[in-house]
Every structure is written in C-alpha cells, then in structure tokens.
C-alpha cells in the first residue's frame, strides 16, 4: 500500500466500528439471508450422499450468525444427520461471540463444533499435518478471500477437500458492484498488497474459467447509503469512507486529488445512484458454487 496510508485492518476497534456502521447502512445481511433461505436449500439438498455424518468447514466464520442460519437450512434438508463443523477464524473476539451464540441457541445438539483460532493458511498447514484424506461435504468462504495472500491457491486447497458430491460456497463483492469499479480505478493507491483486499467474484471467475473449473454464479442485489461521505468533516461519512477505502482516516490522510477522485467516482452512476436526495452505493455480492 502506498505510504503514508495505514490499512484499516491494523486498527481493529476502528475497523469493527466502521464494519458495524456498514452493516447498519447496507442491505448486505438481508440479501445473504434471502439467498440462504431461497437458493441455498437446493444446493444443500444435493450433498451428503445419504451418509449419517456431514463434515463442514466455515472459513472466516466471524461471529457465526450466517453459519447458524445455514445450519438451520441444512437441518431442514438432512434432519437425521449429525454434523462435524470446523470453524476457522483468527479473531479471538469473533470466536468468543460465536461460542456465546452457540451456547444460547437451542437445537444445535446434532452439531459438533471444533474451534480453530487460525487464518486460512494456518489451517491449511494444520490440516495437511493432521487430517490428510478426510473429505468435506460443505465448505463456505463468506467475505474472507480479501484477507489471504493468494485467493486462487486458497480456493484450490479447500476445493481439493470436497467429497465427490461436496460443494464449496464463495461469497465476495461482485465484479459489477461499486466496489469493483472503485478497486479497478484506484487499485494502486488503495489496495493492500500484503493481502488480496481488492479481489471480487470477477477475479475468481476468471481463474475458474482459465482452469476449466465449472461453477454456478448468483448475483445478490445489495446497496448502501453513503450520503454522509460527501459532507466534509461528518463523523459518519468519515467512518464510511474509511470502510470503503480500507484506509485509516482516509479523508484526513489522502492527498486532495486522490480524495476528490474517490469521491467523484463514488458519486458516479457506475458506483451509485441518487434516490430521494440520498446517495445509494451499489454493494452487490456475487456467490460462486463449486464442485470438486
């Protein structure tokens, strides 16, 4: 990342605050829940091959809210099976919240949770040392490939763990979203090269196409109100700008020409639309479903 910027992920409290604001301002969780309730059940129905135990990995599961929604649908499709669930999450805070959520949610007795406080690459190393040969029925990677060094290698490893009827579910921002336009335009100035901060489903589809790997693609319509970003000094706007650029205090630290370029693009019809005087950013997600 170009100096003098510091990545937002280096300041976890500020990142968390901006992420919570993003969830409050966007329809992200709602569009995921619609997908989980309306589209995912048919995908889950096709796994398991009648086996009494299903093996699941959640990579970057966060606080587990989406995981438990998916387990509800899995149980509806496979009411008599037990589940072994490997949770992979490097954040102590998120793992704690996930464990609390599990302890206060009824009806999870059929699921065995194994807690892995580690990154995806640490888990890969751990798995190769410990579990060679074990295959998985369902693996999900939701909004996490931004934080790995090599998304293609990470996807390839987890895909290699699938049972013959297993499914790998990847959710990222869509290449056609406002994020895709922002990152394409300002990748050099904004994107952290230590991780893959600017990856979209467009990049993963290009990789799959080049390798001849078949996949199913679903676009999830989502939006985010970013109106305050355009009011100088507005604390909500500044936090949203940090989240959009993933730079700590972007509005204070960015050179004027970069700040103007980012704000102009955020307001451009390629990224946003104006609705009743509000600026609504295209936050569309892409879902990719892959088989072994």
Automatic annotation (TrEMBL):
Signal peptide: none annotated. Keywords: Methyltransferase, S-adenosyl-L-methionine, Transferase. The keyword NADP does not apply. GO terms for molecular function: N-methyltransferase activity. It comes from the Eukaryota. Substrate binds at residues 28, 283. GO terms for biological process: methylation. Monomer. This is Histamine N-methyltransferase. It comes from Phoxinus phoxinus.
């Amino acid at each position: 990342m170009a100096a003098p910027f510091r990545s937002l992920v280096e300041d976890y409290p500020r990142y968390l605050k901006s992420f919570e604001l993003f969830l409050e301002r966007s329809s992200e969780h709602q569009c995921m829940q619609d997908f989980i309730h309306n589209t995912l059940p048919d995908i889950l129905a096709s796994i398991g091959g009648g086996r009494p135990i299903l093996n699941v990995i959640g990579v970057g599961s966060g606080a587990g809210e989406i995981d438990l929604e998916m387990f509800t649908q899995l149980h509806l499709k496979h009411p008599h099976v037990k589940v072994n669930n490997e949770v992979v999450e490097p954040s102590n805070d998120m793992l704690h919240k996930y464990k609390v959520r599990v302890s206060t949610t009824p009806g999870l007795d059929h699921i065995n949770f194994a807690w892995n406080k580690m990154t995806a690459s640490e888990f890969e190393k751990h798995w190769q040392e410990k579990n060679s040969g074990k295959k998985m029925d369902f693996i999900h990677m939701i909004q996490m490939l931004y934080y790995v060094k090599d998304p293609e290698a990470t996807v390839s490893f987890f895909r290699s763990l699938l049972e013959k009827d297993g499914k790998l579910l990847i959710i990222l921002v869509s290449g056609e979203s406002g994020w895709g336009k922002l990152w394409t335009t300002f990748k050099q100035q904004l994107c952290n090269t230590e991780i893959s901060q600017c990856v979209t489903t467009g990049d993963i589809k290009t990789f799959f196409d080049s390798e001849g790997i078949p996949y199913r693609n679903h676009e999830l319509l989502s939006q985010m109100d970013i109106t305050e970003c355009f009011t100088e000094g507005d604390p909500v706007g500044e936090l949203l700008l940090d989240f959009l650029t993933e730079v700590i205090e972007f509005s204070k630290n960015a050179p004027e020409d970069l700040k103007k370029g980012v704000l102009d693009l955020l307001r451009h019809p390629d990224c946003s639309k104006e609705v009743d005087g509000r600026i609504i950013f295209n936050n569309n997600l892409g879902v990719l479903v892959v088989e072994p």
